[in-house]
Amino acid sequence: MVSLSKSVLSSIYVSLLASSVNALIPIEIVGKRFIKPAPKEGDEGEVFFIKGVDYMPGGASGYSSNSKSDVLSDADACMRDAYLLQKLGANTIRIYSINPDVNHDECMSIFNSAGIYVILDVNSSDSGEYLDRENPSSTYNGQYLENVFKRIEAFKNFPNLLGFFAGNEVINDQGNSVKNAPPYVRAVQRDMKQYIAKHADRAIPVGYSAAEIDDLRAATYEYFQCNIDGDEKDESKSDFYGVNSYSWCSGSSDWGSSGYSKVNSTFQDSSIPVFFSEYGCNKITPRTFDEVSEGVYSGLIDTLSGGLIYEFSEEANHYGLVDLGTDGSATLQDDFDNLQSQYNKTDIPDISESDVEDPTLSTCNSTKIQSLYKGFGNFTLPDQPDEVSDMIDNGLNSTNVGKLVEFDNSPSNYTITDADGNEITDASISINPTATINEQQTTAVPTEASTTKSASATANAASSSSSSHSSSKGAAAGNFEINAGGLMFMMGVGIAALL
Ligand SMILES: *[C@@H]1O[C@H](CO)[C@@H](O)[C@H](O)[C@H]1NC(C)=O
Ligand SMILES: *[C@@H]1O[C@H](CO)[C@@H](O)[C@H](O)[C@H]1NC(C)=O
Ligand SMILES: *[C@@H]1O[C@H](CO)[C@@H](O)[C@H](O)[C@H]1NC(C)=O
Ligand SMILES: *[C@@H]1O[C@H](CO)[C@@H](O)[C@H](O)[C@H]1NC(C)=O
Ligand SMILES: *[C@@H]1O[C@H](CO)[C@@H](O)[C@H](O)[C@H]1NC(C)=O
Ligand SMILES: *[C@@H]1O[C@H](CO)[C@@H](O)[C@H](O)[C@H]1NC(C)=O
Ligand SMILES: *[C@@H]1O[C@H](CO)[C@@H](O)[C@H](O)[C@H]1NC(C)=O
């Protein structure tokens, strides 16, 4: 803990006033819950539920490693979509593939200001950017991990980065993928967490997103959530776990027939946060999303931490809430309105951090996992290749490290049309200062009282390498480099917690 003098604090304060950059509070993990720490030091954090949407405009072809653009490179499109996500009532998006060499600062800053957290997958289907699920040893190498680490570099400084998915549906059948892939996914989680511990200012959570294969569901979860040999520091475990589920179809399913009761019992004793990383069956359209208010945020609320509806934009597989034209125009679909009213109906409980059960240690048990699915449970992870260890030791020296920036908070220039065909004209995002760590910056002029009090505030300058399954109490850990009016400075989170 470093005490800052009154004059230092005042000058930081003034700089903040000049800035429009409000950093969101990074989400932490305690036991099976996500926690949003309180903006003020000493106040209690709250359990955070994901109300989200999967976000990949353009689908898989929206990404190419050769392209200079990706889904987070057009600020005007991000302004359009941040507005729409706010209107919808979402607080999180999941993005599948980004180009680590592209600048994402404006888009991430827009989503940050709109109160939208991001969960990022670190792979793509391009060569050298994925783990081969059938023959993972052929792709588990320096080239792959360099691509993964570049994504960590590009996103590690964004406070609204909720976490990384180390793998998406890598185990996707009961053949070679389940036989060969599991220890490699754990190895990638290990490597990512080692890299983050050395080169990021906070313990960014890393998890896995599982395909919907009922026979494998319990075994896969057991495999990823446990600590090998009961080692508390085991870096290869998942910090959180995503389940893809399309089993509740609008208008035709209920708690029992959807299998949600089974989901509830499978995960009810979970040691880490579990949520739907994709959901929203589209067999019957328009979707009414009954599973939102009748399942995910009611029957499953004690077990899961919410979920992400698949998906924001209309693509070939017809799951879109919004139809995006080639000219960048957005037309809301009936699904958008229906999901909006579902989100509006959900009654998310307020749970204080102190009411969350303490984390439990779950020791990996191959016998138990094999009783759930025969042949699953190989905890002999591949050795880390030397070139990967070297990158972890030295860092990538990446030239593309993202950071929050100021942006022009005027409505998107793209046309937005609602589901009734009316154009929406004032599509600007609203910024909720109470959601941010530096909430005091929105106060017009600091009063004498607050200035005096700030003299006793302390800056938590310690960088956090604590594992994310333990609770780091108080203010969010880590520093955020903010470019305010051309001034670069490091802002200790504690400074934000002016009492
Ligand atoms: C909309 O266009 C104007 C003029 O080209 C530009 O100044 C403004 O930044 C654009 N808005 C956004 C949100 O990009
Ligand atoms: C990489 O992405 C592709 C396409 O999204 C997916 O099928 C594959 O399972 C992913 N691989 C990993 C390691 O996540
Ligand atoms: C779902 O699981 C929770 C524990 O996480 C339990 O309290 C609740 O009773 C379960 N609901 C049903 C309907 O079984
Ligand atoms: C949400 O519901 C409230 C009443 O419960 C209503 O006043 C409000 O307009 C609704 N908002 C949206 C965006 O549907
Ligand atoms: C592992 O799981 C099996 C089957 O559930 C159980 O019998 C055994 O006691 C467990 N081993 C340990 C060390 O907990
Ligand atoms: C377990 O995984 C390792 C790779 O980490 C592999 O070399 C070994 O053959 C696997 N063991 C079994 C029994 O499949
Ligand atoms: C990192 O980059 C800097 C500036 O580009 C360079 O001076 C330095 O040698 C690089 N370090 C490594 C380990 O490549």
TrEMBL record:
<keyword id="KW-0336">GPI-anchor</keyword>
<dbReference type="InterPro" id="IPR004886">
    <property type="entry name" value="Glucanosyltransferase"/>
</dbReference>
<comment type="similarity">
    <text>Belongs to the glycosyl hydrolase 72 family.</text>
</comment>
<feature type="compositionally biased region" description="Low complexity">
    <location>
        <begin position="449"/>
        <end position="475"/>
    </location>
</feature>
<feature type="signal peptide">
    <location>
        <begin position="1"/>
        <end position="23"/>
    </location>
</feature>
<dbReference type="GO" id="GO:0098552">
    <property type="term" value="C:side of membrane"/>
</dbReference>
<dbReference type="GO" id="GO:0016740">
    <property type="term" value="F:transferase activity"/>
</dbReference>
<keyword id="KW-0472">Membrane</keyword>
<dbReference type="GO" id="GO:0005886">
    <property type="term" value="C:plasma membrane"/>
</dbReference>
<keyword id="KW-0449">Lipoprotein</keyword>
<dbReference type="Pfam" id="PF03198">
    <property type="entry name" value="Glyco_hydro_72"/>
</dbReference>
<dbReference type="InterPro" id="IPR017853">
    <property type="entry name" value="GH"/>
</dbReference>
<comment type="function">
    <text>Splits internally a 1,3-beta-glucan molecule and transfers the newly generated reducing end (the donor) to the non-reducing end of another 1,3-beta-glucan molecule (the acceptor) forming a 1,3-beta linkage, resulting in the elongation of 1,3-beta-glucan chains in the cell wall.</text>
</comment>
<keyword id="KW-0732">Signal</keyword>
<dbReference type="GO" id="GO:0031505">
    <property type="term" value="P:fungal-type cell wall organization"/>
</dbReference>
<feature type="region of interest" description="Disordered">
    <location>
        <begin position="438"/>
        <end position="475"/>
    </location>
</feature>
<protein>
    <recommendedName>
        <fullName>1,3-beta-glucanosyltransferase</fullName>
        <ecNumber>2.4.1.-</ecNumber>
    </recommendedName>
</protein>
<keyword id="KW-0325">Glycoprotein</keyword>
<dbReference type="GO" id="GO:0071970">
    <property type="term" value="P:fungal-type cell wall (1-&gt;3)-beta-D-glucan biosynthetic process"/>
</dbReference>
<keyword id="KW-0808">Transferase</keyword>
